[in-house]
Amino acid sequence: MLFNKQNRILNWSLWAIFLGLIAYMKLFYHELWKDEWQAWFVAKDKGIGEILSFLYYEGHPALWYLYLKIFTIFSGIIDAVTLISVAHLVTVGASLYFLFIKFRLPLLFKVLFALSYFLFFEYGIINRGYFLVILFVFWAAYLLRQENYSKKELGIILFLLCQTEVYGVFMAIALGGYIFVKEKWTFISFKNKNFVWLASGLLVFILSVFPRTSGHVAKTNSKSLDFVNKLLTAFQGNLSNTYMIGSTSDTSTYGWTWIGLLASLFCAFALWVVYKKSLALTVSGGLFLVMMMAFSSMFFLGGVRQWGMGFVFLIALLEIRDLDLIKEKLLVGILSFFCIFAFIHGYKAVAEDIKIPFTNAQKAGIFIKEKVPAKVPVVAINKFEETPVIGYAGRKFYELPSGTEFSYFKWVDKIYLPSETELKLFGKYKGVGGIILLSPKPLDGDRFPSAQLWQKYDEINYKKENYYIYTLVVK
Q1: Which of 104, 225, 305, 393 is the most buried (most CB within 10 A)?
Q2: pLDDT tens-digit readout, 167-198
Q3: pTM exceeds 0.70, yes or no
Q4: Do residue 309 and residue 195 come from a single domain?
Q5: Phi and psi of 399, rounded to 5°?
């Protein structure tokens, strides 16, 4: 009894320590970049119905946006950076609650997983909706460990998992495969609540996110490659770049290598060692990997942020599987090997986030907020890159040719490069003597001969987001 009490105290203490560390990094070091601000502005500046119809442009399900919508209620009282960070931190705390308090994994691996690049930095510090995926897949794994779990509760979790990310959909389907095998092939039945909720979740995902026109499909960022090279790139990305992250160069940037493929074959074998304890685990883990590779090959290659979902799913399946530190030395060695890479890469990422700015958007935004009067319009030359500056400036910018204010963007929009004449006409229409131009790179002097560079922010930064601020006299 005393041991159990001490163990609970230790688990809760570790939960609090990790949550505190992530919160500290978020609030005192991390600067938000465009993907973090984009979701916030969509949630803040659109109604619920508009958000649901806008998902087509985002390629992400609704849950993260609807969740952020709750926190936008306080946007007039608390600054946006704090609200976004706190909103995300709640999902981090809830997920780590399952990892440290509810999971029966050995404490050693709870700590190693929490220290990994993916859970601590990529999903923990950066404010994206991926921790909602982690929350619901951990919740589902916890339920599946119970002998008599609530099928209705698990079904709802699978439904919500389908509304997080496309990778959450893959996890929900893979867990459905696990249940299918465990229930001796009787899973697919409308009498089965798990199946009904999962099928409903898939339907809602397809109706809300799947492109309605052939002109907007998220193609892989390796579309210049032939099918074989796409497949090999996806194979390496979803294996060695995930489970041995940092062992080879970034696959999404530099492509596959023979060393990377050999490392990936080792990772595939290692995963088989992990899952071979039961057919249900093998089916679930294999199904997830096949879906990830197919998606990477045919639609969107992605990068470590997307591939890291495989590392998360491994943790969830390990909880379902059970792990014996004493008897399963080979398995412990494999997992420790993976965790070493994840820890080293995470340490480097955190150290870099402390050392250099994540983006130069904060500096540019604060400069505009302090130096540019509210009546002077700020025109964005490339709205896709300038959303984070809007967040830190606390004001909307203008876009041409529409001449309207904006905060978020649509991925399907094309970049419009206005002429200097158009910019001057816009300034005269607004009744001002001059306007401010914001660009992610230096302006062409031949195209904008009258634009004068006022300030630039091109210091080294993690996301390579630079900003140049110009003045343009319009009279």
Answers
A1: 393
A2: 999 999 999 999 988 887 666 665 677 888 89
A3: yes
A4: yes
A5: -125, 150
